[in-house]
Amino acid sequence: MKSGEIGVLEKLGDIPTKWIYLLVIIVMGIPILFPLRTPFSVKPETLAVYNIIEELPPGSVVVIEGANQYGFLVEIKECLQAVLRHLFSKDLKIVFISFSADNRMFHEIARAAVGISKDEPFNGKAYGVDWVDLGYLTGGSSALARFAANPQSVEYDSYGTPTKDLQIMQEMGKADTWGVCIEDSGSGVSNAIRQVAIPYETKMISLNTAGWYPFHIVYVKSGIIGGMTMGIRGAAEYEKLMGYVGLGHSGADMLNMTHGLILILVILGNISYFSQHFSKKEVET
Amino acid sequence: MISTDPLVWFGAILTLCVLSFLNKETSLYRFAEYTYISVAVGHAFVLGMNSLISQTVEPIMSGGVDVLIMFLFSLLIIAQPFKTVRWIARWPNSLSIGVGTGIAMYGAMGSDIISLVQGVIRDGFISEPGATLTGYFSIIGTTAVLVYFFFTIKRDALGGAVGHVATLGRYFMMVAFGAVFANIILSRSTLFFGRMIFLLSEWLGIV
What we know:
The structure holds two protein chains of two kinds. Chain A is of the alpha/beta class. In chain A, 52% of the residues lie in helices and 12% in strands. Chain A has a six-stranded parallel beta sheet, with helices on both faces. The longest helix of chain A has 38 residues. By secondary structure, chain B is mostly helical. Helix content of chain B is 78%, strand content 0%. The longest helix of chain B has 43 residues. Chain B is extended. Classes of the chains: A alpha/beta, B mainly alpha. At the A-B interface, helix 2, helix 4, helix 5, helix 6 and helix 8 of A face helix 2, helix 4 and helix 6 of B.
């Protein structure tokens, strides 16, 4: 190759981004259309979530709270579904509460996907007795602090029923009596830690988005959070633990394929960059 | 089978409008963006009002004097846009900031400082051999990063040792940023996966 002439490796760096997008769409679509069922392991943090729920004494109160945005539905929903299947198969009292407007919808969609409805008992669990949805509460961290100190301060549930008429709410104590607090968004973890886990020493689980995971893993290592799942990968792991194949498995396939492609693109991009860098130097000398 | 639900079609069309951005910024993309923003604002407003009614108005109607006092006090924030009486808005703001800081402080100290330091030390000295190695790594990493952000001593102090440790700290941070970036890719590809599932499953009924 003559000095200054553009080689194949150097051209790789100039591939139009729209072709890369197209490649990603194709690679992502393959495992959706043809499930590959690539093997994956269960991380200790996900296993810890399963074990904490498994070891809860009968009748324990489980609070599921979060401050999600609707856009992240796919990251959390599958995992929340798997966790709900687990929770509703055990003798537990489950309380849903949301600290963002979208999160209430999140809980409704996840429950509907599992088949949980307020109108008829699910696995023998009736609304108002075994589970309740307290809907959306404004006030973020302060509202969570008030709820943790006095759950009865929430006067109405998500459907407008006074909470004093619901058996589960009459029996519910403050945060130090809860079996576990499940935070089902990435962004609300700090609030839950500050208002529930630290002041009341309540056991905590986090169903995280992949983006927030590296920021919150330190809380698992330091023992503040008992167990944590990571986005759709966490969903696949929890589905495996629960013994069924759901959308999480397709998600794991998709991640394996897409990340393989991105890894190849990163390597090719670097080769192209250094190849251009050295040929420029050659020209200069 | 392809969906006959008009809402699914609307969602699919909006998704395709957003994806048109992959080619270039189009008016279709803008349409989807503005639609999303207006729906999100409307939804948050309605739910916020519902929460206000159930948590404030209804307790006041049933004789909650304490809630009424705090509600009237919070209304002072309306003075914010008016220059001459803007100072009044500082009272509810101050209360809100003060209470918020007070509530957060105890938990923040416990979670973000004490427990994290305890965790680093515990991993290094108490755990099993394999975990201890990770623990040592954590201790070295934490110390090096702290040195990087310690600006009182010059980098060439102690025969340049401070500078070397700070550089090590920078490498640790670069690894951490790499891990965060990789997770963001994971997160975003999952979001796209969600849309693909929606298009192929709910809309087109292929899967």
